Amino acid sequence: MKTSNTLTDSVNIKIDLGKPVLQVIEVSIxxxxxxxxxxxxxxxxxxxxxxxRDYAQNIFDVKVMQSGKNIKFNRKSINSWNFxxxxxxxxxxxxxxxxxxxxxRNSYLDSEFASLCMPSVIMMVKGHRSSSHFINVITPDxxxxxxxxxxxxxxxxxxxxxxxxxxxIHAGIFNEHKFYVKGFLHxxxxxxxxxxxxxxxxxxxxxxxxxxxxDLVGEDPPSEDNYLFVLFxxxxxxxxxxxxxxxxxxxxxxxxxSENGYRKLLQLLGHEYFHQWxxxxxxxxxxxxxxxxxxxxxxxxxxxxxxxxxxDLVFPYLAKLSTLEDLLSDLSEELLFFFxxxxxxxxxxxxxxxxxxxxxxxxxxxSIDTQVSYYKLGLVTVLCIDILLRQSNSSMSExxxxxxxxxxxTNLGFTRKQILFEISCINPAISDKLNCWLDTPxxxxxxxxxxxxxxxxxxxxxxxxxxxxxxxxxxNHNIIISRVYKHSPDHLSGLAIGDEIIALNGFRVSTLNDLxxxxxxxxxxxxxxxxxxxxxxxxxxxxxxxxxxxTLHLSSEGDMSKSKLRDKWLxxx
Length: 573
Hints:
Blueprint lengths: L10 E6 L7 E8 L5 E5 L17 E8 L2 E2 L2 E5 L2 E5 L6 E8 L9 E2 L3 E4 L7 E2 L7 E6 L5 E3 L4 E2 L2 E4 L2 H5 L3 E4 L2 E7 L2 E9 L9 H16 L9 E8 L4 E4 L3 E7 L8 H14 L26 H18 L5 H17 L8 H6 L19 H17 L5 H13 L7 H11 L1 H12 L6 H7 L2 E12 L2 E5 L5 E6 L4 H5 L6 E5 L2 E2 L3 H9 L3 E8 L2 E8 L1 E12 L5 H12 L2
Parallel strand pairs: 1-12, 18-19, 19-21
Antiparallel strand pairs: 1-2, 2-8, 3-7, 3-11, 4-5, 4-8, 6-7, 9-10, 10-16, 12-15, 13-16, 14-15, 17-18, 20-21, 22-29, 23-24, 24-25, 25-26, 25-27, 27-28
Helix pairs in contact: 2-3, 2-4, 3-4, 4-7, 5-7, 7-11, 9-10
């Protein structure tokens, strides 16, 4: 992209966080107009999170001024405005942003800190996308500022708009820590409401996980000395969002006290760190030049997220922070969706990528019946490709490194055809199989491929019988059906999502525990329920037990060829 560094062509932005108690960000953008008609817009989505967010819903009190006068402007679309300027003098665009959603893909402000996802805050001026942007941030006196952009006092500089909106801003009083990856300085700020503390070896472990990512790629981090982790340790929430030189991560502190919880934290951070190669710099061709105004469809998200999800599981193992048993346990959790996702028979992996905008990111409890996650199915597909490539003395990491050199470092972007081509250079049969796996639902011969490296999957079942539906308590403490399993007795009897369960076998149920207790001690039950205020009842036979989990373990067969192939696979790099 062509950039401009002239001051007359630059865009100057002031972000005022000085009244955090209002949870409102005040923004001022000034620039010199290039055309008689000026258009400005706010993105409808943020790269890395593939659904329309409608950020403009949080914008209010918009004003345009020139030469000290208010200029009338028109709303062109839900996220864009335009106006006729009076002269070539500087334009001032003023507006406010409600900042009340604490997620990695939106903006939040309160009396303790600010977390700004820039596509939700900063408008783009048409004709100035390639201009230099200078950002001045006003904060309460005691707050510190963090942003992965060059800084002079409180002013950050971005080479263009894309560079700006890829750099989240955080402000507050945080714990800042420094560590090194391959000799390069990295920082992490921890924003915590955690009643405990992270292990003393956390920074050392994180460094090792990051170095494992570098080893897999075979290069130093492209961010060099400029990588920033932002870690929120909260009472709820989980997820991350990648950027060129940073990532914003939310982790539920209660998970730290669950089995393997600390390893899950390292995997989350490793996942977002690896994205600085895969997704941020090695992108599907459709995302080489972002269209911030509308969804951008790609069938390659399975590679972008599935491959990253596969490797985030193995980084702790490569870093010698976990065992083979841990790795197999983590893979077992991911494989469980094969047994518990009816949608695997409905939606293909490539369609899961294409339809992310309207399906995956808008999933409901019942969506599992008709769709799959390109994260999970992508992970398992990459696992299978990796095992098959080992038979040809290659690996998925070798394919990735080739794609990185050809289409990542060169900023060309990759296509599905190019992935298939690189695999076909190793073994055309694998490329042909992948073509089928991408387009045909439930076509992946998972158990056969796992058997090649002497691995078996064993399902384990719930002790209680399957009632055939899931429920939740609504705000009025009514028990509401959220999902009815396909082909279950309840599905066939006509129960529907949204029905309120009133009683079972003549006994009132007021909690989920009441419901489970009665179902657990009966093979048949009469259900009294309400639908749109009308009371009805059905008698239902309890179905067989449901799968609770599965375990991936080494086969008892002592096949030497399988053992050798497994050793190649476990090399991973």
